Amino acid sequence: MAFLDFVAWVRDEDTTPTDIRAVNVVARLLTELRHRDIVPDLPDTTFLLYGENTVPITRKPKPFPADILQAIDALIADQSALPRIERLILRLCRAVGPRSSEALTLARDSVTYVDGRGYTLEYFQSKIQDWRRVPLPPNLGRDLVAQSQWVADTYSPNCPWMFPYAGKSPRSNPIINPDAVTPWPYARFNPFLWKVYQRHGIVHSSLTGETLTGPQLHRFRHSIATGLLNEGWSQYEVQTFLGHKSPTMMQAYAEINDDTLRDKYLEFINRSVDFHGRAVEPMSTDNLNVERLRDRFIRSTLPNGFCALPEKQKCEYLPSPCLSCSFFRTTPTFLPIHIRQRDDAVRELDLARADGRQRAADVHEKTIDQLNKIIDGLSQAPRVEGTHVDN
């Protein structure tokens, strides 16, 4: 039977990605057998061409829940919680998100320092067969340089690894590692770190209900990517920072970021009132365009609310108080400020009337009327649980 017939037989409706990968492994084995003249007479029908048995890939980035990430940060900050080298590896993963295997096999000379530019990490990414160059936080950079010197003093200046493994039974390949030194193996570092997590209660998220099944170091990359997007980095900038070759993963990160922005905006808009004190009509989720929101949603924070004027439009109300501006938005968070403003306006109104300054009195009356509308509207707006406004 031709190999393609075998592939067609495997790829039925019950086929899993594991089955497809197994076929590709067999195809690679057959190719090697003929290429190395072990079985030179294998016919062409036993081979696959590129693209003939593709494995569908679904990108599902999964950043750490916020409380898990906070607990890991606390663990890193506690110098007594981890041995120095293992803590340094975790700090590296948390700061710049290298893949686990790349962090553990980091070359000893991978960190450089340049005056005026600081520390830089450069290493080869085996997954995509390309180099990654990324800036390091100053403290982490200094500690990695110190670690490199420690390795040279402790093992040998010829030791190639930033993090040599010196466990109970370090395995050594005398050809690859003539100095009998190996890097930290993932199969040992992963369970070691997981035991540390368990000992410190980093196993369950109270925010999402998720239970961790291991340290999942790769999720630091996902957390860093979504965090940078939330900070306003472009997809291309994040792609470059993480060393991705294609934008595919960035698009998956961006979907998470857009969902976060959508939720934040809907939470804001559902609790907002305008300068008339009327609740702002929520935007349809189906029509919500996040890029448009970034342009529309609030470039200016006011002492008592926000300005929703699109960034590129000219403000016609700039000489006037924001209380008369149709782009003004506010929430119950600012209710005490509005009440204080109204009380101040009432006092100014009394003084203006007492002095016979009618025009000033008219202005204060209008201000008080506007503030009353806003206060009444905010008093009826839904509040976030746990907040309290004292009138």
Automatic annotation (TrEMBL):
Highest taxon, organism lineage: Bacteria
Tyr recombinase domain sequence ranges: 59-266
GO BP: DNA integration; DNA recombination
Keyword Transmembrane set for record: no
A molecular function (GO) term: DNA binding
Record keywords, A-Z: DNA recombination
Keyword Glycoprotein assigned: no
Protein name: Tyr recombinase domain-containing protein
Species of origin: Mycobacterium talmoniae
